[in-house]
Amino acid sequence: MNFQPLSNRVFIEPIDEDKVTKSGIVLPDSAEKEKPIKGKVISVGPGKFDEDGEKRIPMSVKVGDIVLFKKYGPDEIEIDGKKYLVGDEDDILAIIS
Questions:
Q1: How high is the pLDDT of residue 46?
Q2: Which residue in 2, 43, 91, 96 could disulfide with 87, CB within 3.0 to 4.6 Å?
Q3: Quick check: pTM over 0.85?
């Protein structure tokens, strides 16, 4: 499925973190009640307009980037049984290289 977000919106596919701690303890699924804060960008909008409404401000992220984002920033949506996050570019804190 193809997504084309509007303005400065970003579609993110959440990345599940390891369920084993560094010391080898396996965490059950019930221990993971927090939203993931890491994901892969799967689609970006064209960017928002400046204050004058004349120029688009280019996006800082691109498709394929692995990003860290605010825990409660993006909204969770489900499409065809798969969960995605959609939020503003401002919800993204960093690009992981």
A1: 93
A2: 91
A3: no
